[in-house]
Write a structure and sequence with these properties.
single chain, about 350 residues, alpha/beta, Peroxisomal Thiolase, Chain A, domain 1, five-stranded mixed β-sheet, 13 strands, binds acetyl coenzyme *A
Length: about 350
Amino acid sequence: MPRSKIAGIGMYVPKNVVTNQDLTQYMDTNDEWIQERTGIKERHYAHRTEETTTTMAVEAAKIAIERAGTTAQDIDFIVFATLSPDYYFPGCGVLLQRALKMKEIGALDVRNQCSGFLYALSVADQFIKTGMYKNILVVGSEKHSFGLDLTTRGRNISVIFGDGSGAVVLQPTEEDDRGILSTHLHSDGGSAEILAMYNPGTHANHWGTQDYADFDDAPIANMFMSHAMIDHAQNFPYMDGQLVFKKAIIKFPEVIMEALQANGYQASDIKMLIPHQANLRISQFVQHTLKLSDNQVYNNIQQYGNTTAASVPIALCEAWEKGMIKNGDLVCLAAFGSGFTWASALIKW
Ligand code: ACO
């Protein structure tokens, strides 16, 4: 059975850099708080109307496709991970297929938030291993800036997120000891409401997530997205940051160790760990737990914030472009986020 290899990788971030100081125009926050709690110094925000989650993905995908030595017409499947799609439906996969003038190939959208790229990679890996496809485009892309509560009310969430896109092309390889060695996927829906955006949605307060009675008398057609939801700021994401933090620092090391043990490696064998860029303190905690050196862990949250599904491919691309990942290196990707879902992938580059 062939393995999948990452044949090409690309990334794109919008030009507009938003510093912590810039955010003080909108909310009561400050550079010291944001840097101390998250490590973030700045993030990039997409152009309001000229850039979308898909247009950013197009830029990252073009680079990945070229580096893979192939063309958009040769891609035979798309897996697109995002939590900030251009439309509620259809998904971004078909918009990417259209924008890149690809053949009438399959396009699958993945909704697994921060671990979305790893779920997407795992799905693509299975298709390559079975021989069904030969050139799969896997994308993580986010335009968070459009959906954040940029007021003091939303500051605990809004300061964290940034926009951007990352893409890889997976191809089969018969080379021994090269490619994706394994992927590991997990979920625990018990904490689904801890980090979530409840609306628009069909829950009709069934799970008791909202604290007003709008659903009781609303005409059914208005329950998906109502004026009251907007009046109550319930069209923004919700997060209990401390609970997420506590769970993340347990699940990150666990899923990394799972990948290592499945392949007979230990933490010291990792050449580069690319953790989802959720919070610099989470990455440092994971590094400490696994006794990894600074050179073994790649962090770029300082410049980009948390770009959710895009964060792992952006960090992987940057580390590779800087020459920090070379052929034969053992690379571990890991993510944890909303759902909760978490995942890892071990790759021999
Ligand atoms: N600026 C200034 N003060 C702030 C800000 C801000 N931007 N945000 C919150 N505060 C204040 C709070 O109001 C609170 O004040 P109080 O003590 O007077 O009540 C104080 O700072 C502490 O707030 P906490 O929320 O307890 O701060 P914490 O240390 O937990 O840091 C953070 C918050 C950064 C969000 C952290 O909890 C975290 O990173 N959690 C994990 C996030 C994560 O990994 N998410 C998963 C990925 S996202 C996804 O999947 C979509």
